[in-house]
TrEMBL record:
Top-level taxonomy: Bacteria, Bacillati, Bacillota, Bacilli, Bacillales
Name of the protein described by the UniProt record: Amino acid transporter
Entry's localization field: Cell membrane
Listed GO CC annotations: plasma membrane
The entry's keywords: Cell membrane, Membrane, Transmembrane, Transmembrane helix
Membrane topology value: Multi-pass membrane protein
Length: 211
């Protein structure tokens, strides 16, 4: 019973990690409005894949590598470039009010997954969670539990993230049907601006890292 409650606790932790408004959620909203449910969901799946990679790295003991200053600077730089590109693209799409054709769906889905993966992989804040907060939590439950159970707790976090992403993708899909075209346009532009705000924050952190 104690083990089950612990797994539920980590599922809730996964939802708590995914729920706050951040680059992944904003990109899911943007893709969901213009490209549909699957593109939005694929962004979340891409982010989850990056989280799974981080989880495996922690189990392999490679966490200290990401504490190197040069690696952190590189992550901030790549994150800044990626979020700026996505933000500008979103604003341009909103201003043009461009409709996405159904023939582009497969290509769009592939790009959505890659975007989600890269946003999560190059987000130092995400890395801080996995190698900081999660690493500490892992240390707390390591005593008295098997490696298999510890891995199950880790996967429970991903289950929580998965449930939130699925919920968000469905919410965007059904909400889109009730919104006017002009509202969707301004939501897209607003999402682009927020992505650029996050990019500027990455640039600030990059500057601080150099000092």
């Amino acid at each position: 019973m104690e083990e089950l409650l612990l797994c539920i606790k980590y599922i809730v932790l996964g939802v708590s990690l995914a729920a706050p408004v951040g680059p992944i959620n904003i990109e899911m909203i943007r893709r969901g409005i213009h490209q549909g449910f699957y593109s939005s969901w694929f962004v979340g799946l891409g982010g989850m894949t990056a989280d799974l990679v981080f989880l495996i790295l922690i189990f392999l003991g490679i966490a200290p590598l990401l504490q190197i200053k040069l690696v952190q600077v590189l992550l901030y730089a790549l994150g800044f470039v990626l979020l700026t590109y996505l933000g500008v693209s979103s604003i341009v799409t909103g201003l043009k009010n461009k409709a996405i054709g159904i023939d582009d769906r497969e290509e769009i889905d592939n790009r959505s997954f890659l975007s989600g993966f890269m946003i999560a992989a190059f987000n130092p804040i995400n890395i801080v969670f996995w190698f900081g907060i999660y690493g500490s939590s892992l240390h707390q439950i390591s005593s008295g539990h098997s490696t298999l159970f510890i891995f199950a707790c880790s996967l429970s976090i991903l289950v929580g993230i998965f449930l939130w992403n699925l919920n968000l993708a469905f919410t965007i899909y059904f909400s889109k049907q009730m919104l006017k075209s002009s509202w969707l346009k301004w939501i897209t532009i607003g999402a682009g601006i927020l992505l650029i705000v996050y990019a500027v924050d990455f640039a600030r952190r990059l500057f601080v890292a150099f000092i």
